[in-house]
Each structure stands twice: as structure tokens, then as C-alpha cells.
Design brief:
The chain is of the alpha/beta class. 41% of the residues lie in helices and 13% in strands. The chain has ten helices and eight strands. It has an eight-stranded parallel β-sheet with strand order 6-5-4-3-2-1-8-7.
Length: 288
């Protein structure tokens, strides 16, 4: 997977099966969620990241059974929509990868048992070895996100003397934990966790120093879409108004050699990636 993700800038489309997504794009209608995923694939998504619980901290966690019940029908229907359509171009990963955004081991086990999930996007920051062990057992990749404390709990008082020093200590520890249970570099992805346990200036410092993640020689996911830090900088309280700022973050990520970009507006980001890539390759077309 490492080679696949690093071969070309990749786009991860966000699908929310919930009714409280911060960006207002969630739905409890599985058919509608699958239709959203289908359109994202047509627009150029290489990975679909599906979650059934919003990461918003002003709401408590939903029950384990409820989260599983929301996810399983989507997983069942995903392969069918992939068979109905063709890739946008030869650069797109096909068949596309399916990622599940979650944090509790009970849910990780339930979705991996289906055999339909390629990546676990652990927004809990790998607090112990449980999710890493499950990924090793089922042969899935593990996306490790930097954060502090438990999910679904506000961390607005978190402060860092040096956010990058803290982040590098975190990744050193979590990668050692993941490797201890048997995960290899082909199964590991890093996420600096924009907006998670970070304030405005912390997030901007993360963007400024992104090249530092290259020392790990692992795929880097950058969650750039409609983030609070963009709203803070531009004075835009409504997330859907932040797509231009999202493209600015994409450009910064491409300069820093990030590999995977997690977004709501797949078409805009996939188009931008292809134009920038064409410029880098002296204008050669990237479509068959």
C-alpha cells in the first residue's frame, strides 16, 4: 500500500453516516451515503473514508451497536457501486480503497471481520495496541492520527511548548507500538491531526513544518477539508464556505510531499491535483 499511496497525490473522500457532521453533509440514509461515495469515485477519489460518528466534541459518543449498525450496510453496498462504474483515469487507484473512521476496538473488529475494509482511520490516536493488533490480524492498514486525550472530549485548553516536538514524540511512540504487534511500513499511514487538540497557531505551525514528517518515510495523510483553522483565518464560520482555503492547504501539502488528502469536495481537489501534476511534468496530459 505504501508504494500505491506515494506514486501520485491521492484523494480521500469523506462520507458521513450520521446526522451531526460539522460540515452538514451527513446522512443516516445508507442509499444516499452510497450515492455520495459513488459520485466521489467518479470525481476521482482513490479512497473513501466512511464514518458513522461525528468527531464533534459537543456531542457524546453514540453506542457501539448503533455505530456498527450504521456502517455494515454501507460496507455491504460499496463493492457493488465500484463494479457499476469505471475509474476517472489511469492514475486513480482502482478498485478504490475503503477506510473506516472510528476509534473503539469493538467497531474495528466488527468492520474488519467483513473482509471489505482496507484501512482503519484511528482518530483515537492508538491509545493502546488493540487496534494495531486487529489490523495485523486482518491484514489492514492503520492510519495513526496525532491527538491528545480521548475522542469526543474537548481539548481547547491543550497547549504545546513546541507542537512539532510533541508530535514527533507521539509518532515515535505510536509507530513503535504498531510495529511491536507486527505491522510493517506497508501498513502504516501518518496524520498530523489538524484541528485535533490544537489551537489556531498550532495548526498553522503544523502546516508550516509539514516536511518534518518525511523523516518517517511513510505515507502522510493531510486532513485539509473545511477545517476550523481555515474558518479562523478567513473569518468563515460556515464550513461549506471554506473550499478555497482547502485548496490553499492542498497546495501547501503538495509542496511538502504529503500523499493523501482527506476532503469533502473531491472534484475540486482531484482537478487541482491533476493540473499541478501536469505542470510538474511539463504539461503532459494525465488521462489516457
Amino acid at each position: 500500500m505504501k508504494e500505491m499511496l506515494r506514486a501520485f497525490p491521492r484523494v480521500m473522500g469523506i462520507v458521513n453516516i450520521n446526522d451531526d457532521s460539522f460540515s452538514g453533509d451527513g446522512t443516516l440514509d445508507v442509499a444516499r451515503a452510497l450515492a455520495t461515495a459513488r459520485q466521489m469515485l467518479l470525481d476521482g477519489a482513490d479512497v473513501i473514508d466512511v464514518g458513522a460518528e461525528s468527531a464533534r466534541t459537543n456531542r457524546g459518543p453514540i453506542g457501539v451497536r448503533e455505530e456498527i449498525a450504521r456502517l455494515l450496510p454501507f460496507l455491504d453496498g460499496f463493492s457493488a457501486i465500484c463494479e457499476e462504474i469505471a475509474p476517472r483515469d489511469h492514475r486513480q487507484i482502482w478498485p478504490p480503497l475503503l477506510s473506516v473512521n472510528t476509534w473503539r476496538p469493538e467497531i474495528v473488529a466488527a468492520v474488519l471481520q467483513t473482509g471489505k475494509v482496507d484501512v482503519i482511520n484511528d482518530i483515537g490516536g492508538l491509545v493502546d495496541e488493540a487496534n494495531a493488533r486487529l489490523c495485523f490480524e486482518y491484514g489492514a492498514a492503520l492510519l495513526i492520527m496525532h491527538t491528545v486525550g480521548e475522542p469526543k472530549v474537548p481539548h481547547t485548553t491543550q497547549r504545546y511548548a513546541d507542537v512539532w516536538e510533541a508530535m514527533e514524540r507521539f509518532f515515535d511512540d505510536r509507530l513503535a507500538r504498531a510495529r511491536r504487534v507486527g505491522l510493517g511500513d506497508d501498513q502504516l499511514i501518518l496524520d498530523p491531526g489538524i484541528d485535533f487538540a490544537k489551537q489556531r497557531d498550532d495548526n498553522l505551525a503544523v502546516y508550516r513544518g509539514l516536511e518534518r514528517l518525511q523523516r518517517y518515510d511513510l505515507p502522510v495523510l493531510l486532513p485539509i477539508s473545511r477545517k476550523t483553522v481555515i474558518g479562523d483565518v478567513l473569518g468563515l464560520p460556515v464550513p461549506v464556505d471554506r473550499d478555497a482555503g482547502t485548496i490553499a492547504c492542498l497546495v501547501r501539502g503538495l509542496v511538502a510531499r504529503a500523499d493523501l488528502f482527506r476532503v469533502h469536495n473531491v472534484r475540486a481537489v482531484a482537478d487541482a491535483v491533476r493540473v499541478i501534476a501536469a505542470i510538474r511534468t511539463t504539461g503532459k496530459t494525465l488521462v489516457p
